[in-house]
Amino acid sequence: MRYRIRENDNDSNSSQHEEFDSTIMNFLIRRIKVEKRKLGDYTDFEPLQVTEYTFDGFPGYGFNSYQARSYWTRQILDLLEEGGIIPENWSGDLGGKDPERQKIIRTIRKC
User: Fold this and answer.
1) pTM above 0.70, yes or no
2) Which long-range contacts link 26-35 to residues 24+ away (Cβ below 8 Å)?
3) Phi, psi of 90 (to 5 degrees)
4) pLDDT per residue over 2-47, tens digit each?
5) Model confidence over 64-101: pLDDT tens digits?
6) 3-class DSSP string for the chain
7) Distance CA 95, CA 9 (A)
């Protein structure tokens, strides 16, 4: 059997089928600064390492690798609201099942 694939049905470049939101990704990548630091300098043990993430122009939105992932996500959503990328008090129409919200969360976690 042969199947005819229509160009419109299989358009992988459309924004509807994008896995990540390029506007949000570019906004975050341009502003993020990553700094790795060692905690303590013990001779017997390897020192702990912490990775700190900060954003240029948004001093109150930093976090580190020891904080929970949900805290990171909430901080970045607040940052995107303040930056005007997503509307204020935006949580998606359907909560966790909203496809647009899931796309934004995937983008945040990819960065």
Assistant:
1) no
2) 27/80, 27/83, 27/85, 28/55, 28/76, 28/107, 28/108, 28/111, 29/111, 30/56, 31/55, 31/56, 31/57, 31/58, 32/111
3) -85, 125
4) 544 454 444 444 445 566 678 888 888 889 899 998 887 766 677 7
5) 888 888 888 888 888 888 888 887 776 655 566 778 78
6) CCCCCCCCCCCCCCCCCCCCCHHHHHHHHHHEEEEEEEECCCCCCCCEEEEEEEECCEEEEEEECCCCHHHHHHHHHHHHHHHCCCCCCCCCCCHHHCHHHHHHHHHHHHC
7) 28
Count of all residues that appear for the chain in the document: 111
